[in-house]
Amino acid sequence: MDASVLIVGAGPTGLVLALWLTKQGVPVRIIDQTAGPGATSRALAVQARTLELYRQLDLADAVVAKGYAVPGVRLWLGGREAARIPFAAIASDLTPYGFLHIFPQDEHERLLIERLAALRVAVERSTELLGYAEDGGRVSARLRGPDGAERTAEAAFIAGCDGAHSAVRAGSAVGYPGAAYPQTFYVADVAGAGPAFNGDLNIELDQSDFLAVFPLADGGRVRLIGAIRQDDGRDLDKLSFDDISDRAKRLLRLEVETVNWFSTYRISHRVADHFRRGRTFLLGDAAHIHTPVGGQGMNTGIGDAINLAWKLAAVLAGRAPDALLDSFEAERRAFALRLVQTTDRFFNVAAAEGRLAEIVRTRIAPIALPLAAKLEPARDYLFRTISQITLNYRGEGLAEGRAGAVHGGDRMPWVKAGAGDNHQALAAIGWSAHVYGAADDGLRQWSEARRVPLAVFPWEKPMGHAGLRENALYLIRPDTYVALAETAQSVDAVERFFARTQIRP
């Protein structure tokens, strides 16, 4: 075979999948139809959960250094700022990344490509997937290279990370039900000045068309994102920035000096019927797509990649049965369905028409949102949802038990521990165990014999506030989700878990 995994598509999802697999010793090929990485981007936000996972490949610090941590969100009404919600007051005890981080997708891709190149893996550019078929225990794919010649590539598995019009999804005959939003979206990269160039995310509430200004790292440049309705009589495919900029300039008091680039696009809300079919996997926009409101799309694709990577590595190494790969669809498709429903509801409220919707946006929201931000439960819920740290796999086959407020399937809560934090012990990609308090000798001996690292943290009150239980045992998956939570340090319970799943850590 040419590689163990053929990855089609070199956006963030495909690049992250290639990085995580390569780091685990899995040979990959990654191809893309384009001649090079994009020079513009719609995706901007890197959520806290993504940054937490990026610590596994020493990526988080680089992304934070190259991007911009947004300190808060400002709501605008009638051409004036109506309210400000600071992020620092929301998430300082939930994650080391308690902010909205802006790092445009084109810059993000270049960083991932550099890291992949350092591992001696290059993206094969101007290479198109023409078709593929499963042939016994492998996939045989027909590729057209930059010279126009057709070649065959063989791999154990194929991963479709090739976007909403996925050739891999088409080749697997997987349905992609859903519908298009009635709005056309636009994005403009502009330089200028004005009160909305304040370093915060600025959202305008007056009109039923979504309108937001996202700050960028250099301070004098922002990304303007909005939605345009279909019923205004214009040819939306031929719009220019001048056609849509009046409202943004008036309601957000923008003084635009330079338009670096401008584009329009349509978006749908869809979830594929299957994320796995035989030796084929669908990830990112090839598997799910939804409104850009909330900055979830790119992060969800990256989450898909990390979820799948450790499972593929385990199966290819003979440390787990093929059935482990079924959990990719079970876990990630369930999340995608919830996400599409959530973003749909939010966008429909934000873009709804009518007198009632106008009252909610212009009179209730500017008062209710800042008040909600002062309430800890409301702040936590808002940040946990958007940042994806609330994502869990409870009730699935790789989740058992409960200790404190932490269930099997939950993200391991983040807490400060000594001079650092407990997530520092999760930097390596592999199984591990945590105890907050004291570990007994039997558990220590098991950890050494099984070569499963055991991290023991002296008990502190903040650990209880985070939902952890003193002296409980938490068995943690390679993607830093809790597989097993046990109030007693039961080695037998851990062994039963591995026997049931047939995983050898």
UniProtKB/TrEMBL annotation:
Residues 3-342 form the FAD-binding domain. Its cofactor is FAD. Pfam families: FAD_binding_3. InterPro entries: FAD-bd (IPR002938), FAD/NAD-bd_sf (IPR036188), RIFMO-like (IPR050641). Keywords: FAD, Flavoprotein. GO terms for molecular function: FAD binding; oxidoreductase activity, acting on paired donors, with incorporation or reduction of molecular oxygen, NAD(P)H as one donor, and incorporation of one atom of oxygen. SUPFAM superfamilies: FAD/NAD(P)-binding domain. This is 2-polyprenyl-6-methoxyphenol hydroxylase-like FAD-dependent oxidoreductase. It comes from Roseiarcus fermentans. The lineage of its organism: Bacteria, Pseudomonadati, Pseudomonadota, Alphaproteobacteria, Hyphomicrobiales.
